[in-house]
Amino acid sequence: MRWPVQAGFPSPAEDDQEPAIDLNALLVPHPEATFLLRVRGHSMTGAGIDDGDVLLVDKALTPSHGRIVIAVVDGEFTVKRLHLSGDGVRLEAANPDYAPIRFQDGQELQVWGVVTRVIKTL
Q: Peptidase S24/S26A/S26B/S26C domain: from which residue to which, for each copy (predicted)?
């Protein structure tokens, strides 16, 4: 899908226009499993996720190594990058001021959904 926009002088050709953009079709392949969440905090700034941004989260997607996920750790929601290895599972921040979350016996982790888009206010 393409929806070009001129960054110079606009083109006067009306017959050159693409069909209207349907945001639901473009952004929400699983409407019954897609949610919006607002970010609070700065742990993912290195991944382009800033305080106040809105995340599009798809619970129908299977979380995999390297994906940014919404996780529930000991009952608290957090957004982090999922790291899967032979050493186990950890959640990594994208800001060096925040340490990775490594799981110990008795800690509970539930990956709630996969982040698919970040919506920013300019």
A: 5-115
Cα dist from 40 to 8, 13, 52, 53, whole Å: 37, 44, 6, 8
3-state helix, strand, coil in the chain (%, to 5): 10, 35, 50
What are the boundaries of each domain within the chain? 16-119
Q: Domain 16-119, what fold?
A: Umud Fragment, subunit A (2.10.109)
Cα distance between residue 48 and residue 81, in whole Å? 12
Task: Select which of 64, 80, 85, 120 is catalytic.
Answer: 80
Instruction: Please indicate whether residue 80 is annotated as part of the active site.
Output: yes
Task: Please confirm, yes or no, whether 43 is among the known catalytic residues.
Answer: yes
**What is the pTM assigned to this prediction?**
0.82
Q: Which of 43, 59, 85, 120 is catalytic?
A: 43
